[in-house]
Design brief:
Length: 122
């Protein structure tokens, strides 16, 4: 019933910028923490950035100062603004959300987006 749809990936030159979006839809009572992960071929999936419902953010040291996570609760959407991109940022980026579906659900469930490819050339 819940779906996360990602967009904004693509090919960009080193030093360029991209903005990723992830919109949640379906049965949503409370949209809690949202996160961005990335996974390069042959590498472990890693956490890039996170944001709480109230707007508290954290970013990985590897992207600190370059990436910014934000959310629009009215649109159930989380964004990842990526600036000063480097070839090592090349990966599939995934959105993750914790969602409480109804008042009868006492805990939040975990949902993942389909992933969007980001390729940075040198």
């Amino acid at each position: 019933q819940v779906q996360l749809v990602e967009s904004g990936g693509g090919l960009v030159q080193a030093g360029g910028s991209l903005r990723l979006s992830c919109a949640a839809s379906g049965r949503i009572y409370v949209l809690n923490d949202m996160e961005w992960y990335r996974q390069a071929p042959g590498k472990q999936r890693e956490l890039v950035a996170s944001i709480t419902r109230s707007g508290t953010t954290n970013t990985a040291d590897s992207v600190k100062g370059r990436f910014t996570i934000a959310r629009d609760n009215a649109k159930n959407t989380v964004y990842l603004q990526m600036n000063s991109l480097k070839p090592e940022d090349t990966a599939v980026y995934y959105c993750r959300a914790a969602i409480r579906q109804s008042i009868m659900h006492l805990t939040a469930d975990e949902y993942w987006g389909q992933g969007t490819q980001v390729t940075v050339s040198s």
